[in-house]
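In practice, a research group might receive sequence data for several interacting partners and want a quick structural hypothesis before committing to experiments. The following worked case mirrors that situation: the sequences arrive first, and a predicted assembly follows.
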Amino acid sequence: MRLAKLGVAGVAAAVLLGGCVTSPDRPPSPSPSVPVAHSPGQSSSPPSAAPSDDALRNAAGEEVVFPVVEIAEVRPETIKITEIAKVAPPPLDQDQVGVLALEGKETLVWFLPVENYSGEGMIKSGGIGFRTDDGELSLFDSTEHVASDGRPRGIIGADLDDDWAVWSESSSTDLYQSNWRVFSQRRGGGAPRLLAVAEDQRSANWETSPIVSGDSLPILSAGLVWWHTAWERPDGIFRPRVVAVPPDGGDVKVMLDMASTPTPVTGGVVATQVVDDPGVPVDERAYAYHETGLVLIDASGAVTDLLRYSEDVDAGRLARNVASDGDTVAFVMGDDVLVMRIDGTPVARIPGPAPEGREFTDLAVCDGKVLFTPYNADIGGDTVVIYDSVSGALKTIDAPDAFPWVYCSDERVGWTQAPDGWGIVTIAEMVTG
Amino acid sequence: MCVKLIIGAIAGLLGGMPVLAHADDGGDDPFINTIGDGYPIAIDTVEYPNGAHYNNHPNRSTVIGHWIVGRGHESDAKTLKFLDPANELWKQYGTKASFSQSASSFHKYVTTNGIVG
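A structural hypothesis for the assembly, expressed as tokens:
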């Protein structure tokens, strides 16, 4: 089993990378390039010019500059919201439930038998289904024995639209490999149908597929189910590719090789494009590729540039945590959240980190609104930020002990708080205006 | 060879409960002691669905077991510094090659499996 060695190899590489250390480390020098955020009510520094976006070009090769929207300077309105439901983990001696996705007024959840909380391995397979606002679960038929690799599986990602639920499952309990399976089911009922398996993207030489760009997370857009996967090229090297298939099944179509992390937009998806590092010997190519920008892929497979990075771009200035919906795309770049339209129009740069070193990580975008929770692993988050990219309104919701995971639909928002260390998702009406 | 691997149960030696760098008892702490001796330290972490995850690891509905490397700490020993070998595979979700976290908030990730000095 060749891939089983990857985890050990990864750790060994990291250990060697670490090499000798000295103790204690010096405190870091202050960086003049990091924007400083201010708490509401604090006096803010004089407005400064927008940071240079010289690493970013649009499809025409023109420099893209994002207008700065300072959280402190616009004094975001802290709002009361109308709570609809809370998805709280049951006591830890019971089976667990967690939120996967919101759509309209529906909540899609994962279900996990409590036996899996006794150690590192998966003991029993989990499941997926809907949860009513009153807490009633309606689980789909089990897929445990469909395309089984002999090991229990859990849900690793899911999406909903008006007609379909789609999700991926994996037996992996590490961050290096995944035998993903993608399923769909009509929202109105029926049975799960298997759409694709990881084995389709590799030769028989391998028992599992490596993870090359995070988990394979299916999304629904333009009438198709899209996801990225590790794909074994003819030269034996694994790279990411974006594939798609109709939700009722059919041939899986390669939408773009050397691309990853598709997220939904009108007519298709936004994805990250990558290229091999030039001149690297075959046996050293495992991670020898880099990102070149964001592209749009439509349902026919046509690809157009959205953003291009310069050749010498710093790794800290690449799009991370990309989220999108309709004509709006948001991502984290460096410390900041950037928002743009799929026609290339830059909308906003919200500088980070937030007060007390809270960073921007997980994003959700619905109906032009961008949702995120500034988060510091040591002290958690304390607010949820909702930026309306159409009106420009910036609003916050008080959320003590927040985790970074956020969710939204056109009608609802969801965020995570963990006063006891376990995430509770509050679902509320979408904020308007 | 400057990498020190004592494949053994530091947690066991300490009565089953791994200790991870508390400022007040740093003298008995394997993390602080190993770093102080000039070596990195291997750490076997576990993250549970719905529980906290570090360094932007994914909130899957599967348990995640993951080894990382302790490489240093701040002078007061309250903040620890780590290397994450999964960075290249998860960087598009914000997983960083190196990150820092307080010992007190990181402790929960090693209560299942412990650490290896």
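Before designing any experiment, note the following. Chain A touches chain B through 72 residues (CB under 8 Å). Residues 4-18 of chain A form the longest helix (15 residues).
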